[in-house]
TrEMBL record:
It holds the Pfam family Amidohydro_3. CDD domains: Bact_CD. One of its GO terms (biological process) is cytosine catabolic process. This is Amidohydrolase 3 domain-containing protein. The lineage of its organism: Bacteria, Bacillati, Actinomycetota, Actinomycetes, Actinomycetales. The keyword Glycoprotein does not apply.
């Protein structure tokens, strides 16, 4: 199907543009295009068009399990891990597959077309991993799913942790993970990162590490990960997720660390909603926000993207998969509220996230696959501020989600 999208604003552009799509690719991007025979015409009415949203950090294997078998009453990361460990005992293939698909459908309704999910592999049967690998293939035409082998209870600190990670790599995951701050000792932390880097290189995989997701300023897994990435020359393929301990680092240490981070080329993912919920739980007052230094990293030219992290599970009792909520909260939490920062913040869940996922063929430009979304707003500021819905999502020129503009009327 060939398609002509009329009168839209691409990525906050002041001028209206038309988009011609042929054979699933962007063919022309310019104003005043005339319809050709056989084209389907869509009038955008001056609305905003963006590349599709990218969820760069979520846990689909645990999605929609909040309250099973109990709620996380303390709101801490560590009780969440305990609750999930209990729920994991009743995990089945069908259960994991059904919940993950339901969560992905929710995400798709909010304009998401790319998802990186962490899947717990501290399960001798690797039940959830098998379900998510199959699901990845089933939905490949509409949603790109990347899978991270995530050792929730550690690599060195969990029985046969190394063997389970290797099995996951052999089964065909996209990324190798680690959780250095949860390992029993500092020595185990370093050893786990060394092993993860070696495994990723052996299987030619990306890396995404839950790194220093803790309020402890002595948690220093990030410097190890960055050094290993620098030495191996793989920084652009490596992501440090969370890094909430950075919020507690003293400035003298952070400034020294920043040099290494820039040299390494690491990507970062912040999860503002869940990080502010889980972190600072041991504080009275002053009480830390518990979010990594997004503004400082961004200003230093380091790539940062945002993620939802959890959707109704032991770590987050709420969450819908709507990345607009994540950006909205993240801007306030990180105090990135200048006009330009607000207008450009969509990049945290589009272009920046594309770098995190190491994507090619992404973005609205001639020759790329025609993947894009349309929002009921003239620009990102209004879309973000007023919660404008996604009216349409197209994948290779085929519409995979549609909605109608909301009608509101004040009676005075």
């Amino acid at each position: 199907m060939n398609l002509l999208i009329k009168n839209v604003r691409i990525e906050n552009a002041p001028q209206l543009t038309d988009i011609r799509i042929k054979d699933g690719k962007f063919a022309q991007l310019e104003g005043g295009l005339e319809a050709q025979a056989g084209e389907q015409i869509v009038d955008g009415g001056g609305r905003l068009v963006l590349p599709p949203y990218i969820e760069s950090h979520v846990h689909l294997d645990s999605a929609l399990t909040s309250g099973q078998p109990r709620y996380n009453e303390s709101g801490t990361l560590f009780e969440g891990i305990e609750v999930w460990s209990e729920r994991k005992k009743s995990l089945t293939y069908a259960d994991a597959h059904e919940r993950a698909l339901a969560a992905i459908r929710q995400q798709a309704s909010f304009g998401v077309q790319y998802v990186r999910t962490h899947v717990d592999v501290t399960d001798p049967e690797l039940t959830a991993l098998r379900a998510l690998i199959d699901l990845r293939e089933e939905i490949a035409d509409t949603i790109t799913l990347q899978i991270v082998a995530f050792p929730q209870e550690g690599i060195e600190s969990f029985p046969n942790g190394r063997q389970l990670m290797r099995r996951a790599a052999q089964m065909g995951v996209n990324c190798i993970g680690a959780i250095p701050h949860f390992e029993f000792t500092r020595e185990y932390s370093v050893s786990s990162l060394n092993y993860a880097v070696e495994l990723a290189q052996e299987f030619d995989l990306l890396m995404d590490v839950h790194c220093d997701e803790i309020d402890d300023e002595a948690s220093r897994g990030l410097e190890t990960l960055a050094t290993r990435a620098l030495e191996a020359g793989i920084g652009e393929r490596v992501t440090a997720s969370h890094t909430t301990a950075m919020h507690s680092y003293n400035n003298a240490y952070f400034i020294r660390l920043l040099r290494l981070l820039k040299l390494s080329g690491l990507n970062f993912v912040s999860n503002p909603l869940v990080n502010t919920h889980l972190q600072g739980r041991m504080d009275t007052y002053p009480k830390r926000r518990g979010v990594t230094r997004v503004k400082e990293l961004t200003d230093a030219g380091i790539n940062v993207s945002f993620g939802q992290d959890d959707i109704e599970d032991p770590w987050n009792p709420m969450g819908t998969g709507n990345l607009r909520d994540v950006v909205f909260n993240g801007l306030y939490t990180t105090q990135m509220m200048s006009r330009s920062e607000i207008l450009n913040s969509y990049k945290f869940i589009t272009h920046n996230a594309a770098r995190t996922l190491h994507l090619s063929d992404y973005g609205i430009q001639v020759g790329n696959s025609a993947n894009f979304i349309m929002l009921d707003a003239p620009d990102w500021f209004h879309a973000l501020s007023f919660g404008a819905p996604v009216l349409g999502s197209w994948r290779a020129g085929k519409q995979i989600y549609s909605a109608t503009p909301s009608q509101r009327e004040v009676k005075f």
